[in-house]
Write a structure and sequence with these properties.
The complex is a heterodimer of chains A (289) and B (368). Chain A has 289 residues and is mainly alpha-helical. Chain A contains 10 helices and 3 strands. Chain B has 15 helices and 8 strands. Classes of the chains: A mainly alpha (289), B alpha/beta (368).
Chain lengths: 289, 368
């Protein structure tokens, strides 16, 4: 089922949701909703308070989107106005949408990664600026997009899932087209991911003619925390070799854990498989029921 | 704790959400266990800083925002990429073996942040690890522990990793103060040690509930700090046996909150929706034990100091111990000058005071 998405129509590119209301209107609505929630809570009307809170969260999410759009148009608008005065246009404006950039990085690493690492790898190998603050809202945007039109995109950026509860793992992004076992994080996985990332980064550097200083720095940071990687100077080959040597120790046990969880995960509904289950009674019913 | 006490504490707090104990408040509480005022306020979860400002004694400075940010950044660095840096350090210093890399994050259980759920999960995971099963786990991030303070359960959320090594748990305390040339600020190390001791105590209590001996948790805690002026890490073993003994004794001495509350008049309330003068008056009804050390760790200390002006204990523990039985400075002066006849329990202090007075007179002569 997951592989099937790749073949679906490619709607890539733009992914901003249309926000009907103006940002001021949303702000007014948020304030009103907050006081309504408070009144409902004080009156002891739990059901009403819960509905209102859900509405409030939606309004807040819409506000975030509207703000991101504003920022984006401000970023894109500024160089366009000043362009005639400059000899060279500002290179900072990203050529690809954020999700494509993140997808590139994750494809390079082949394992789930935290935003900090994604930004570091992007800076080392790819062009354009990646704004780490926007990574946080990315996951939510993706989930909303999937829920409104399932499988409309060739891939989704979704959270890695914890091995025990199949819940979204804190701060780890993965790609929906990966095999389920590759998206699961067990107790040993953080280390396995780290070592795999180190190998992938080292590998990528050997294929570059002229790696940037940021790439060397990234490699050095990996090498510092892998035993034996920095012996005789930090070279991509030695880092990859040392990482592989340690990876062998953890790989088997980790894979066993992850595959066992992946089997369990296969029984869940597609949306839970992608975005994880939550130990939250109301939502749980919605998703699994 | 019974329902009556719960209701009384709610009334005392007023219409504001309760604040939680943390390792800092517990170590402060144990530094002055005889203070009923602090005991009641902490049990009721009162925001002491706000209350102090309301009754006219605002706190002059609080925790520095810069220090908090620095602490968080350093912690994130230590824990980044599955604790990569911490693992390197532990392998280097403690000869942790290569397969020991398992990492469990207990900050949220399936997106559920409720304390009961997290505590239950912490307990399960740590018990499984302590029983020594094969996939026992090595590092545990953000466990949620529980401690009984004055008859009431408080949850503690340490920014630390309980780490299992050679069948024993070790508490890892990450602190952002530097260790320069192998030396760190003594006061900060002492504070870190007592906080870690609180966690060791909680961990032991939790494992004891499930039948594990105290030795399952080591009394040596691992203190991780930045080295010199860099962002590199360094680890030190700190023995907290002494702090543990102190904590255990002080916690057992803490008067049970039920008794304390039952002694108070049923109308006492420190709600800041009432007039400031009335709140100050009600505060006076709860007995305090002011000591100069309070200024370091209680937000309300300046109120208590003002209230106990003229008492001998304002001058610190040594002075008040020397003047046992003499409550006020006025009495002390009277006894020294001989204008006041000492009561039987004051005889010893009175002779000391008179000696001091004669020495003073001799030294200063006519200038006195």
């Amino acid at each position: 089922m997951i592989e099937g998405w790749v073949l679906l129509e490619n709607t890539g590119g733009l992914y901003s949701t249309t926000v009907g209301e103006s940002i001021e209107g949303l702000e007014r609505m948020i304030v009103e909703l907050r006081s309504a929630v408070r009144h409902a809570a004080m009156a002891g009307d739990r059901a009403q308070a819960r509905t209102l809170r859900a509405e409030l969260r939606r309004a807040e999410a819409a506000w975030d989107d509207a703000l991101a759009e504003l920022e984006e148009s401000a970023e894109l608008g500024e160089p366009a106005v000043r362009a005639p005065e400059r000899t060279r246009p500002k290179p900072a404006a990203p050529l690809l949408p954020m999700r494509e950039q993140v997808h590139h990085v994750l494809t390079l690493l082949t394992v789930p990664a935290a935003p900090r690492l994604i930004v570091a790898v992007h800076d080392a190998f790819f062009s354009g600026e990646m704004i780490s603050a926007r990574l946080t809202s990315l996951r939510r945007d993706e989930e909303r997009s999937y829920r409104s039109a399932p499988n409309a995109r060739p891939y989704y950026l979704c959270p890695a899932l914890t091995a025990d509860l199949l819940a979204p793992a804190r701060g780890l992004l993965s790609v929906s087209t990966w095999a389920m076992a590759g998206r699961i994080v067990g107790p040993l996985s953080p280390r396995v991911h780290y070592l795999t990332s180190a190998m992938q980064v080292a590998d990528y550097i050997t294929r570059l003619d002229d790696p940037r200083p940021a790439a060397a720095r990234l490699l050095w940071r990996f090498a510092a925390n892998i035993p034996g990687a920095a012996e005789g100077g930090v070279r991509p080959e030695s880092v990859a070799k040392a990482a592989r040597a340690e990876l062998v120790i953890h790989e088997e046990a980790d894979l066993y854990d992850r595959e066992a969880s992946a089997e369990r995960a296969a029984r869940l509904s597609p949306v839970v498989q992608l975005f994880g289950s939550r130990l939250d009674v109301v939502r749980d019913k919605e998703e699994t029921g | 704790m019974n329902a009556g006490t719960e209701a009384a504490l709610d009334r005392i707090r007023g219409d504001v959400p309760a604040r939680n104990h943390n390792a800092r408040t517990i170590s402060a509480l144990t530094s002055n266990p005889g203070c009923n005022r602090r005991g009641v306020m902490d049990a009721a979860g009162i925001d002491k800083e706000r209350l102090a400002a309301y009754v006219g004694f605002p706190v002059q400075f609080g925790q520095s925002q810069f220090a908090i940010t620095r602490g968080n950044v350093f912690e994130a660095q230590v824990k980044a990429n599955g604790c990569a840096e911490l693992l390197t350090l532990l392998r280097d210093k403690l000869e942790l073996e290569l397969p020991e890399v398992s990492y469990d994050d207990l900050e949220a259980v399936g997106g559920n942040l409720s304390r009961e759920v997290r505590h239950a999960r912490t307990r399960n995971l740590l018990a499984r690890a302590a029983s020594g099963s094969e996939d026992a786990g090595t590092l545990f991030d953000h466990p949620l522990l529980r401690l009984e303070v004055g008859g009431r359960h408080v949850y503690l959320e340490p920014d630390l990793i309980a780490f299992q090594w050679k069948g024993q748990f070790h508490v890892v305390e990450i602190k952002s103060f530097p260790v320069i040339d192998g030396q760190a600020d003594g006061g900060k190390v002492a504070a870190a040690a007592i906080q870690s001791a609180v966690y060791v105590l909680c961990l032991r209590a939790m494992l004891a509930e499930q039948g594990f001996p105290d030795s399952a948790v080591a009394h040596d805690v691992v203190l991780v700090c930045p080295k010199d002026f860099s962002n590199q890490l360094t680890a030190t073993f700190v023995d907290v046996r002494k702090q543990l003994t102190v904590l255990r004794r002080q916690l057992s001495r803490l008067t049970r909150i039920d008794e304390l509350v039952s002694l108070l008049p049923p109308t006492v309330s420190l709600s800041i929706s009432r007039p400031a003068a009335e709140v100050a008056e009600d505060l006076g009804l709860i007995e305090a034990r002011y000591m100069p050390e309070c200024l370091n760790n209680c937000e309300l200390a300046r109120f208590c100091r003002d209230e106990s002006r003229g008492c001998t204990r304002v001058m610190g523990r040594t002075v008040s111990e020397d003047l046992g039985g003499v409550e006020t400075v006025e009495t002390a002066l009277g006894l020294a000058r001989g204008s006041l006849a000492p009561s039987p329990e004051q005889v010893e202090a009175a002779s000391l005071l008179r000696l001091a007075w004669s020495l003073r007179a001799e030294c200063l002569g006519s200038a006195a």
